[in-house]
Amino acid sequence: VVATASGGASELVLDGVTGVLTPVGEVDALASAVARLAGDSALRRAMGEAGRERIRSVFSREGYLDKMARLFERAAQGRQAGGAR
C-alpha cells in the first residue's frame, strides 16, 4: 500500500511495515514510494504479508471480540473497585 498520511489510511497502514505513507500533497514523495515498491518485490511481499497479518490480528472478528471482552472486564473491575456509580 502506498497512501497519503491522512484519514483512515494513517490509522490502517503502519508506515514502513504494512505500506508506505507519504505527506499529503507531496506528489514527488508519493511517486518515489510507488517507484521504490515497484522495484523491490521482496519489500512488496514483506509489506503485503505484514498487512494481511495485521488485518487478521487487529480487525478480525476474534480480535474485536477479545478487545470488547477486555474492555468489559476493565469496566467491571472499575465498578468493583470504585463501588456503584
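Next protein, fold it too.
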Amino acid sequence: MKQKFLVTGGTGFLGASLVKKLLREGHAVRVLDNDSRGRRNRLAEEENQIELIFGDIRDPHFDRDLTRNVETIFHLAALIGITYSNKAPDSYIDTNIKGTVNICQAALDNQVMRVIHTSTSEVYGSAQYVPIDENHPLQPQSPYSASKIGSDAMALSFFNSFNLPLTIARPFNTYGPRQSQRAVIPTIISQSINVNQIKLGNIKTTRDFSYIDDTVSAFSKCINKKKTFGEVLN
C-alpha cells in the first residue's frame, strides 16, 4: 500500500538510499535535512520527485509542522561523529536526544501511524563478548554513544507512556556507495587508488559489515509489522 513518508536526515548516506528505495516502490516522500555538509547531491536525480525541506529537528515548532500529513516517519537525523562528540557533547544532547523527543512528540500530536527511530551499534561499545547479542550491556564509551542510548530510551518512553507506534532499528557498520571517507572501507579504497599504500591504525580489530542495500531492505521491512512496536531490532 502506498504511503506518505517523512525521512529525517534523508540526504545522509543511509537516508538517501532509503529515500531512493521508497520512491522506487511508488511512495510519496518528504525529506528533511539541514544540508550542513552539502549532501544534497546524493538525491540530485530524485529532487523533483521528493518534497525536500531544510530545517532543524531541535526546533519543536518546526517539527510539528514537518510531521503533519505523513503516515510513517523514518527518523535518521543525528550528529554522528565520535571524535567531534568529545569536543562538543552539548550539541549531541541537543540534536540526538532533544531532537528525538521533538520528533516523537510531534508524531504523537499529529497521530502518525508509525515511527521508525534509528539507533546504532555504537551503543554497545567495545564488545565484552562475541558475537554480540541482544543481552549485551549498553556502554556509553563516548558522548555520541551516550546520546544515542539516551535517544533510544526517550523514543521507547513514548511507546511505553503514550502508545506511540514506534520501532527502533539498530544497524551495524553499514558501507556502500556514496559513503563519506571518514569510514574505514572508503578510506582503504581511496588509499589503494591514490597512494597505493594502505595505512591504518589497529588492524587487529574485527567487525561485521552490512551492505547498504541490505540495511535499507531491513528498514523497509519494518513498515507494516505492527508486532515490532516497542521493539529494538538489531
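About the second fold: The first helix runs from residue 13 to 24.
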